[in-house]
Amino acid sequence: MSSATHPLAQVAEAKADTVAPAATHDFPLPSAAAARYSVWLLTVIYMLNFVDRQIVNILAEPIKRDLGLADWQLGAMTGLGFAMFYTTLGIPMARLAERYHRGRIIAGCLVVWSGFTVVCGMSTTFVQILLARIGVGVGEAGCTPSAQSLIADSVPVNKRASALGTFSMGVPVGSLAGLVLGGIVAQSYGWRAAFMVAGAPGILLALIAFATLRDPRPSSTPASRANLLPLSAVLAQLRQQPAFWWLAAGAAITSFVGYGQQAFYVSFFLRNYTPELSAAAQSVGFAGPLAFVGVALGIVLGVSGGIGTLVGGRLGDRFVAKDAGGYGMVAAISMLLAGPLLAGVFFAGSGLTILMLLIVPLFLKNMWFGPVFAGIQGMIPQRSRSTATAIFLFVLNAGGLGLGALLTGLISDLFASSYGEAEGVRYALVATSLISFLSAFCFWRAAVAMRRGA
After folding, report:
1. CB-hemisphere CA count at 13 Å for 50?
2. Listed residue (444, 435, 411, 249) closest to 339, CA to CA
3. Considering the domain boundaries, does residue 331 fall inside one?
4. What sign results for the dihedral spanned by CA atoms 311, 164, 143, 19?
5. Gap between the Cα atoms of 167 and 148, Å rounded
6. What's the number of domains the chain is made of?
7. What secondary structure does DSSP assign to 97-155, as a single string?
8. DSSP secondary structure string, 150-170?
9. Where are the bilayer-spanning segments (predicted)?
């Protein structure tokens, strides 16, 4: 077996990339202009990914009333049903991305998830909308591993965290757009129309991606396939890198908090502050509290979260230039600060005050994306980056996306039995906020392991 394909040699290469951000690529990088275009187009696609994934959160209360659902069913629909297939199919889709043109894979996936978003709006029962949400998860499974590995192969290594931080703006900004779009459309035309409006643009964007998105990696040839590690070899490498698993654990816990809370933010405000929000909506000309909450919460999530991802990515590049554990430390510090601030916000008094105060903890809570994803991309050879990303996302989403909304809903139902629905969801949000301390610990352990080159 040649040294290019021997797993132990590849482990050494991966560790070198982790501790030496100036490492070179195995093939020529695209021009700076071409790389910027790819990063921004993929960021727009990722935004649409989160519009279609998260729009269900602003529509949760109308769907609950129309279909007669319990909170656990909302959690299953928004999280578990989506995540089951999103996480499971991520790895086989990533294996395809190691072999074929990643831009075309992303374009095809975009068509699938956009189509099933439209189908969500046609659903009339819990089972139907659950299956449609599963379809969205099937389509989105191939996006993130392909996109992140493509970005890692398009930019210099010392700019990787910044580029992935830009890409990660798709999470908060897409969530912003989903909340604003969903709130305004649902208030005037109903929740079904909101799904249809959200899904339609994906077809056009898929055509643009298919025609213009360049993959800098050489195409699948016998020579390139010789460097493609089997899944067992990738897993063998990762088993020798504790930093990977600490980063994955920290990200999973962070996502548990994020996805679980986002699924119930709108319900929290509508159940506790409807009169106040109705008056605020009327004063600024909105049709009702749902539209007002969607726009206000969307702006808070999108602006604070978007800035947080950019700042986190740039800090990650700066920290890691001086400290091999810099990626992990940026994530650890941000989550250590975010947890108590987020928990305290929900007791701040009025609904408008809470909306404003959410800006700070949500800024901090989004800083981990760029540094953590950059750390993951540096732990594996180029031909296996999609697979490593998919394995990482499997851990992240199984614990976060899969269980976050479901368990938050169950906690809400549990507290509601003693304190009522309004206070039940408040206490559920507070309880999940405090879990952020565990993610900070995991990111710190990752930083320690990265300093040791493990």
Report:
1. 27
2. 435
3. yes
4. negative
5. 8
6. 1
7. HHHS-HHHHHHHHHHHHHHHHHHHTT--SHHHHHHHHHHHHHHHTTHHHHHHHHHHTTS
8. HHHTTS-GGGHHHHHHHHTTH
9. 34-51, 72-93, 105-131, 164-185, 191-213, 244-270, 290-312, 324-348, 354-376, 388-412, 424-444
Residues 148 and 164 sit within 8 Å (Cβ to Cβ): yes
pLDDT in tens, 48-83: 998 988 788 778 888 988 998 887 787 777 766 777
Supply the range of the domain harboring residue 70: 31-216+232-451
Report the CATH number that the domain containing residue 66 is assigned in CATH.
1.20.1250.20
Reply yes or no on whether the pLDDT at 310 is more than 90. yes
Alpha helices in 231-264 (DSSP H): 231-239, 242-262
Question: What are 310's two structure tokens?
Answer: 């950019």
Residue 4 lies in a domain: no
323: alpha, beta or left? (left if phi > 0; alpha if psi -120 to 50): beta
Which of 143, 358, 381 minimizes the C-alpha distance to 268? Answer: 358
Mean of per-residue pLDDT scores for the chain: 86
**Nearest-angstrom CA–CA distance, 113 and 79:** 15
Residue 227 falls within a domain, yes or no? no
How many C-beta atoms surround the C-beta of residue 259 within 10 A?
28
* pLDDT exceeds cutoff 70 at 267: yes
Q: What is the largest CA-CA distance in the chain?
A: 72
Helix axes 32-58, 60-67, angle to 10 degrees: 40
Buried b (16+ CB within 10 A) or exposed e, 128-142: ebbebbbbbbbbbbb
Cα–Cα distance measured from residue 323 to residue 105, given in angstroms and rounded to the nearest whole number: 36
What's the confidence (pLDDT) of residue 147?
Answer: 92
Contact 288/144 with Cβ under 8 angstroms? no
In a domain, 103, yes or no: yes
